[in-house]
Amino acid sequence: MSERILAGDPFGGRQPTQHERMSGKPWDASYHDGPAPWEIGGPQPAIARLVYEGVFAGTVLDAGCGSGDNTLHVASLGLPVLGFDVAETALAAARKKAEDRGIEVTFAAADAFQLSRLERRFDTVLDCGLFHSFEGDERSRYAVSLASVTEHGGTLYVLCFSDDGPDTGPHPISRDDLRAAFNPGSGWNVAAIEPDRVRTRYHDENGAPAWLATIKRA
Ligand SMILES: C[S@@+](CC[C@H](N)C(=O)[O-])C[C@H]1O[C@@H](n2cnc3c(N)ncnc32)[C@H](O)[C@@H]1O
């Protein structure tokens, strides 16, 4: 594909996700007019709790890191952390926060479906709000892609909207949806799926019902 075509392509040469096709906009547009609905001005409480519990170890990947509040919180532990996203506006904001706070961390543009292009492997992986943005076969393609960059025995934490309870988020996920995507066939074993909460700008301070899944690389 020529650079001339890529220059006018809001998707930078990658295949748009189903969410982008439905909304008619690239993910980057979510970051153009003030904070996106999931930008709460700091890390998600569930992720801050994981950090407090000391579950992050080794090299860390934050998948669909957005403007980096969770990534930076993990990186403040002093671990080597890479956050990736397709939204360049979010990545620029994340890099600025890292610089302002003096936190060493890397933010890179990458497509969740083509992670082998990173040519790196990670011990602990975080997904806060990315998995639940995918539909249909995107979920299993993502699981396979993520497995390609995760060390055997590594751990993936997925925080996603759940289908359990009133006032669910816009992309409610069932336990079966998680198990269907993350299974030995895609390189994973689900160790636990616990109820949790995701905070947003449009729910009250209790946030929306969520699952926190702990998933081991087979
Ligand atoms: C709901 S937001 C969550 C952002 C961040 N994790 C947080 O908690 O603030 C989902 C993020 O996934 C990114 N994303 C969506 N599809 C992607 C893909 N195919 N590859 C990489 N990032 C993607 C979006 O740009 C967006 O920043």
Description:
By secondary structure, the protein is of the alpha/beta class. It has a single domain (18-217), classed as 3-Layer(aba) Sandwich (Rossmann fold). Helix content is 27%, strand content 24%. The chain contains 7 helices and 7 strands. It has helices spanning 3-7, 18-23, 45-53, 69-75, 88-101, 138-147, 175-181; strands spanning 60-63, 81-85, 106-109, 122-128, 150-161, 188-198, 208-217. It has a 7-stranded mixed beta sheet with strand order 3-2-1-4-5-7-6, sandwiched between helices. Helix 5 (88-101) links the parallel strand 2 (81-85) and strand 3 (106-109). The longest helix is centred in the middle third of the chain and has 14 residues, at 88-101. The N and C termini lie far apart (36 Å). Mean pLDDT is 95; it is low at 1-5. The protein binds S-adenosylmethionine (SAM). Residues 17, 27, 38-39, 64-66, 69-70, 85-87, 90, 111-113, 128-130, 133 line the site of S-adenosylmethionine (SAM). Pfam families: Methyltransf_25. It comes from Actinoallomurus bryophytorum. This is Methyltransferase family protein. Residues 60-154 form the Methyltransferase domain. Residues 1-26 are annotated as: Disordered.
Keywords:
disordered N terminus; 27% helix; alpha/beta; binds S-adenosylmethionine; 218 residues; 7-stranded mixed β-sheet; globular; 24% strand; 7 strands; Rossmann fold; 7 helices; Methyltransf_25; SAM-dependent_MTases_sf
